[in-house]
Amino acid sequence: MSQEKREKIAVDKLDPKFKDQVAQERGGEMIVRCFACGTCSASCPVRQANDRFNPRRIIHMVLLGLKDEVLSDDFVWLCAGCFSCQERCPQGVKIGDLMTALRNIAVREGHIHPSFTAQMNLLGKAGRLMEIGDFENKKRGRFKLPPIQQDAAEVRTLLEKCGVLQPEEVQDRGGG
Protein backbone atom coordinates (compact mmCIF):
# COMPACT_ATOMS: atom_id res chain seq x y z
CA MET A 1 0.00 0.00 0.00
CA SER A 2 1.23 3.45 -0.89
CA GLN A 3 2.39 5.80 1.84
CA GLU A 4 0.56 8.66 0.11
CA LYS A 5 -2.08 10.35 2.20
CA ARG A 6 -5.47 9.30 0.85
CA GLU A 7 -8.08 12.02 0.74
CA LYS A 8 -11.76 11.68 0.04
CA ILE A 9 -12.92 13.11 -3.25
CA ALA A 10 -15.87 15.47 -2.98
CA VAL A 11 -18.18 14.51 -5.82
CA ASP A 12 -19.59 18.03 -6.04
CA LYS A 13 -16.10 19.33 -6.91
CA LEU A 14 -15.64 17.02 -9.90
CA ASP A 15 -15.85 18.34 -13.44
CA PRO A 16 -17.08 15.42 -15.57
CA LYS A 17 -16.33 17.35 -18.77
CA PHE A 18 -12.67 17.98 -17.89
CA LYS A 19 -11.45 14.83 -19.67
CA ASP A 20 -13.36 15.97 -22.78
CA GLN A 21 -11.80 19.43 -22.54
CA VAL A 22 -8.35 17.84 -22.33
CA ALA A 23 -9.16 15.43 -25.20
CA GLN A 24 -10.08 18.40 -27.41
CA GLU A 25 -6.78 20.14 -26.65
CA ARG A 26 -3.90 19.46 -29.01
CA GLY A 27 -1.79 16.78 -27.30
CA GLY A 28 -4.62 15.47 -25.13
CA GLU A 29 -6.51 13.54 -27.78
CA MET A 30 -5.50 10.07 -26.57
CA ILE A 31 -6.11 10.50 -22.83
CA VAL A 32 -9.12 8.18 -22.72
CA ARG A 33 -6.98 5.31 -24.07
CA CYS A 34 -5.04 5.10 -20.79
CA PHE A 35 -5.75 1.94 -18.82
CA ALA A 36 -3.42 2.86 -15.93
CA CYS A 37 -0.74 0.23 -16.53
CA GLY A 38 1.91 2.43 -14.90
CA THR A 39 4.51 2.15 -17.68
CA CYS A 40 4.68 5.94 -17.86
CA SER A 41 5.43 6.36 -14.17
CA ALA A 42 7.94 3.52 -14.16
CA SER A 43 9.92 5.04 -17.04
CA CYS A 44 9.79 8.67 -15.89
CA PRO A 45 13.11 10.15 -14.68
CA VAL A 46 11.30 13.00 -12.93
CA ARG A 47 9.20 10.47 -11.01
CA GLN A 48 12.40 8.79 -9.82
CA ALA A 49 13.61 12.12 -8.40
CA ASN A 50 10.28 13.51 -7.15
CA ASP A 51 7.44 11.32 -5.88
CA ARG A 52 4.91 14.11 -6.39
CA PHE A 53 5.20 13.75 -10.16
CA ASN A 54 3.30 10.67 -11.25
CA PRO A 55 2.02 10.68 -14.85
CA ARG A 56 -0.41 7.81 -14.20
CA ARG A 57 -1.89 9.64 -11.21
CA ILE A 58 -2.21 12.89 -13.18
CA ILE A 59 -4.06 11.09 -15.99
CA HIS A 60 -6.30 9.39 -13.43
CA MET A 61 -7.08 12.75 -11.84
CA VAL A 62 -8.02 14.19 -15.25
CA LEU A 63 -10.27 11.22 -16.01
CA LEU A 64 -11.97 11.61 -12.63
CA GLY A 65 -12.61 15.30 -13.31
CA LEU A 66 -10.32 16.80 -10.65
CA LYS A 67 -9.82 19.89 -12.77
CA ASP A 68 -8.95 22.42 -10.05
CA GLU A 69 -6.46 20.08 -8.40
CA VAL A 70 -4.71 19.25 -11.69
CA LEU A 71 -4.51 22.80 -13.06
CA SER A 72 -3.51 24.53 -9.85
CA ASP A 73 -0.84 22.08 -8.67
CA ASP A 74 2.85 22.38 -9.52
CA PHE A 75 3.17 18.81 -10.73
CA VAL A 76 1.94 19.47 -14.29
CA TRP A 77 4.92 21.82 -14.67
CA LEU A 78 7.49 19.21 -13.59
CA CYS A 79 7.49 17.16 -16.81
CA ALA A 80 10.96 17.27 -18.36
CA GLY A 81 9.67 16.58 -21.87
CA CYS A 82 12.00 13.62 -22.37
CA PHE A 83 9.19 11.51 -23.88
CA SER A 84 10.38 8.30 -22.19
CA CYS A 85 6.79 7.68 -21.11
CA GLN A 86 5.43 8.42 -24.54
CA GLU A 87 7.80 6.02 -26.28
CA ARG A 88 6.84 3.19 -23.93
CA CYS A 89 3.08 3.66 -23.58
CA PRO A 90 1.37 0.50 -24.91
CA GLN A 91 -1.81 2.46 -25.66
CA GLY A 92 -0.13 5.26 -27.61
CA VAL A 93 -1.07 7.96 -25.10
CA LYS A 94 1.20 10.88 -25.91
CA ILE A 95 1.91 11.74 -22.29
CA GLY A 96 4.55 14.41 -22.93
CA ASP A 97 2.14 16.15 -25.29
CA LEU A 98 -0.64 15.66 -22.73
CA MET A 99 1.41 17.49 -20.09
CA THR A 100 1.85 20.38 -22.52
CA ALA A 101 -1.91 20.38 -23.14
CA LEU A 102 -2.56 20.52 -19.39
CA ARG A 103 -0.12 23.41 -18.99
CA ASN A 104 -1.80 25.27 -21.86
CA ILE A 105 -5.22 24.85 -20.25
CA ALA A 106 -3.78 25.90 -16.88
CA VAL A 107 -2.35 29.11 -18.34
CA ARG A 108 -5.60 29.96 -20.13
CA GLU A 109 -7.47 29.52 -16.86
CA GLY A 110 -5.05 31.72 -14.91
CA HIS A 111 -2.85 29.08 -13.26
CA ILE A 112 0.56 30.31 -14.38
CA HIS A 113 3.55 28.72 -12.68
CA PRO A 114 6.04 31.22 -11.16
CA SER A 115 8.91 29.71 -13.15
CA PHE A 116 7.10 30.48 -16.40
CA THR A 117 6.50 34.07 -15.29
CA ALA A 118 10.16 34.45 -14.34
CA GLN A 119 11.25 33.15 -17.76
CA MET A 120 8.93 35.55 -19.59
CA ASN A 121 10.18 38.47 -17.49
CA LEU A 122 13.78 37.56 -18.30
CA LEU A 123 12.94 37.26 -22.00
CA GLY A 124 11.30 40.69 -21.87
CA LYS A 125 14.27 42.20 -20.06
CA ALA A 126 17.21 40.57 -21.84
CA GLY A 127 15.72 39.13 -25.02
CA ARG A 128 16.90 35.65 -24.01
CA LEU A 129 16.76 33.34 -21.01
CA MET A 130 20.41 33.90 -20.20
CA GLU A 131 21.76 37.41 -19.97
CA ILE A 132 24.91 37.88 -22.03
CA GLY A 133 27.49 40.12 -20.44
CA ASP A 134 31.14 41.01 -20.89
CA PHE A 135 32.33 37.63 -19.61
CA GLU A 136 30.31 35.68 -22.18
CA ASN A 137 31.24 38.04 -25.02
CA LYS A 138 34.97 37.77 -24.18
CA LYS A 139 34.61 34.01 -24.27
CA ARG A 140 32.89 34.26 -27.66
CA GLY A 141 35.72 36.52 -28.89
CA ARG A 142 38.28 33.79 -28.15
CA PHE A 143 36.41 31.61 -30.65
CA LYS A 144 36.22 34.47 -33.16
CA LEU A 145 32.47 34.80 -32.66
CA PRO A 146 30.84 38.23 -32.77
CA PRO A 147 29.60 39.74 -29.50
CA ILE A 148 25.92 39.41 -28.69
CA GLN A 149 24.14 42.68 -28.12
CA GLN A 150 21.57 43.01 -25.35
CA ASP A 151 18.63 44.37 -27.33
CA ALA A 152 15.34 42.97 -26.17
CA ALA A 153 13.04 45.46 -27.91
CA GLU A 154 11.87 43.03 -30.62
CA VAL A 155 11.34 40.22 -28.13
CA ARG A 156 9.42 42.55 -25.77
CA THR A 157 7.21 43.68 -28.63
CA LEU A 158 6.47 40.06 -29.57
CA LEU A 159 5.68 39.11 -25.95
CA GLU A 160 3.39 42.12 -25.63
CA LYS A 161 1.54 41.27 -28.87
CA CYS A 162 1.09 37.69 -27.65
CA GLY A 163 -0.33 38.99 -24.39
CA VAL A 164 2.45 37.50 -22.26
CA LEU A 165 3.74 40.88 -21.08
CA GLN A 166 1.82 44.08 -20.61
CA PRO A 167 3.47 47.37 -21.72
CA GLU A 168 3.44 48.65 -18.13
CA GLU A 169 5.42 45.57 -17.04
CA VAL A 170 8.17 46.53 -19.45
CA GLN A 171 8.25 50.07 -18.09
CA ASP A 172 8.41 48.74 -14.51
CA ARG A 173 11.63 46.89 -15.45
CA GLY A 174 13.11 50.02 -16.93
CA GLY A 175 13.13 48.67 -20.48
CA GLY A 176 12.23 50.77 -23.41
What are its keywords?
mainly alpha, 51% helix, Fumarate Reductase Iron-sulfur Protein, Chain B, domain 2, 176 residues, disordered C terminus, 2 domains, 11 helices
Task: Tell me about this structure.
- The protein has 176 residues and is mainly alpha-helical.
- It folds into 2 domains: 11-108, Alpha-helical ferredoxin (Fumarate Reductase Iron-sulfur Protein, Chain B, domain 2, Orthogonal Bundle), CATH 1.10.1060.10; 114-172, no CATH class.
- Helix content is 51%, strand content 0%.
- It has 11 helices and no strands.
- The protein has helices at 18-24, 39-43, 45-49, 55-64, 67-72, 84-88, 95-108, 114-126, 134-142, 153-161, 167-172.
- Helix 8 (114-126) crosses helix 10 (153-161).
- The chain is elongated, with a radius of gyration of 20 Å.
- It starts with 17 loop residues before the first helix and ends with a helix.
